[in-house]
Amino acid sequence: MSDIKRVVLAYSGGLDTSVILKWLQVTYGCEVVTFTADLGQGEELEPARAKAQLMGVPDKHIYIDDLREEFVRDFVFPMMRANARYEGDYLLGTSIARPLISKRLIEIARETGADAIAHGATGKGNDQVRFELSAYALDPDIKVIAPWREWELTSRTALIAWAEQHQIPVPKDKRGESPFSTDANLLHTSSEGKVLEDPWEEVPDYVFSRTDNPEDAPDSPEYITIDFERGDGVALNGTAMSPATLLTELNTLGKRHGIGRLDLVENRFVGMKSRGMYETPGGEIYARAHRGIEQITLDRGAAHLKDELMPKYAELIYNGFWFAPEREMLQAAIDHSQAKVSGTVRLKLYKGQASVVGRKSADSLYSERHVTFEDDAGAYDQQDAEGFIKLNALRLRLLAKRDRG
């Protein structure tokens, strides 16, 4: 690492990454390029520019990029086509953001002639794996600096002391112990640590930031429609919207009705279990709607195969293998399945739940004539079922006769 002259840092402007910025300058004697991604986290990002300038970063080396549309269009929507949920529940809000951040880090490193990239992920979590696997997939020769695995600042107190020693402003709210840590983007907010570390204790109300309490949600349900084309949402209540705009509007609806809360103990890729609280209001509504339109447009074989592939696909994203060939192979199969996944879904939003209550499509495979309890005018011969059952029962009958002796 002695030949590093310039580093691109994933920079939030917060205390941790501000300390990292200065630590890179002091430890490596290098120039630092800061990159701040707007993924719809809902925070003012311009203060990050002022903080970087204060620490000697020239304007040409300060990147603040609005990636909201790319995030939803090229990462969230492809993932949603797969109905991906890690360990059956988690909609992968943090996981799916990391490959995009890594992609942009590598692009900026090339643009600025940087020798390395740096991130603020700790050595205990999944994010270090996700950032670095993505980076190496895009540039096998890139150098990665992970300060949390190198320095001796192992506590909040030590971090603040180092910041004060090097004239880094420390906000008053950072001097005490944070009750929990959060990560946010347009898809979700995650909260972990401190008050959430005991999995027996219920999540305190003050932890929730993206969703109103379902118990306090409106007493009357709200009905909405989402239009899909080839597996992607394109309109809300008949109004065409871009991917990021659609998800933003669904977030507003989900917040009001308390939709998308998840208290989860998950298995981290690095080996430990962790407890987190996730809020994915718009994503939960969207995921329910997507399954709703697939119910009438996907053939049974394709639908069931997708459900078999989904846990593997979700695990690949969770573990940081977005740019791996196996994820891309699965994506190609999933995208092929979405060719006829078009139509409209109607949902009922009510006190924490998003329920599909209607679906229609010009490409529907649902045949009322075949399924009706009334006269089907010869569409289905019920006597055909007898042979179908006997053929499927043949091996069971042979087994039973053998085992009976």
TrEMBL record:
> Could you mention a single GO BP entry for this protein?
urea cycle
Describe the location of the Arginosuccinate synthase C-terminal domain by residue ranges. Answer: 180-397
Enzyme Commission code(s) on record: 6.3.4.5
Where is it predominantly found? cytoplasm
Which key words are in the record?
Amino-acid biosynthesis, Arginine biosynthesis, ATP-binding, Cytoplasm, Ligase, Nucleotide-binding
Binding residues for L-aspartate: T122, N126, D127
PROSITE patterns the record matches = ARGININOSUCCIN_SYN_1 (PS00564), ARGININOSUCCIN_SYN_2 (PS00565)
Q: Which residues bind L-citrulline?
A: Y90, S95, N126, R130, S181, S190, E266, Y278
In terms of superkingdom, the source organism counts as: Bacteria
GO MF, one annotated term: argininosuccinate synthase activity
**Where, by residue number, does ATP bind?**
A10, Y11, S12, G13, G14, L15, D16, T17, S18, A37, G120
Write down the InterPro entries for this protein, in alphabetical order: Arginosuc_syn_C, Arginosuc_syn_N, Arginosuc_synth, Arginosuc_synth_CS, Arginosuc_synth_type_1_subfam, AS_cat/multimer_dom_body, Rossmann-like_a/b/a_fold
The segment(s) forming the Arginosuccinate synthase-like N-terminal domain are 6-169
Signal peptide boundaries: none
Any GO CC annotation of this UniProt entry: cytoplasm
Q: Which SUPFAM superfamilies match?
A: Adenine nucleotide alpha hydrolases-like (SSF52402), Argininosuccinate synthetase, C-terminal domain (SSF69864)
According to UniProt, the reaction catalysed is: L-citrulline + L-aspartate + ATP = 2-(N(omega)-L-arginino)succinate + AMP + diphosphate + H(+)
Annotated pathway, please?
Answer: Amino-acid biosynthesis; L-arginine biosynthesis; L-arginine from L-ornithine and carbamoyl phosphate: step 2/3
Q: What compartments host this protein? A: Cytoplasm
Q: How does it assemble?
A: Homotetramer.
HAMAP family registered for this protein in UniProt: Arg_succ_synth_type1
Please state which protein family the record places this protein in.
Belongs to the argininosuccinate synthase family. Type 1 subfamily.
Name of this chain's protein: Argininosuccinate synthase
Q: Please report the organism this UniProt entry assigns to the protein.
A: Croceibacterium soli
List the top taxonomic levels of the source.
Bacteria, Pseudomonadati, Pseudomonadota, Alphaproteobacteria, Sphingomonadales
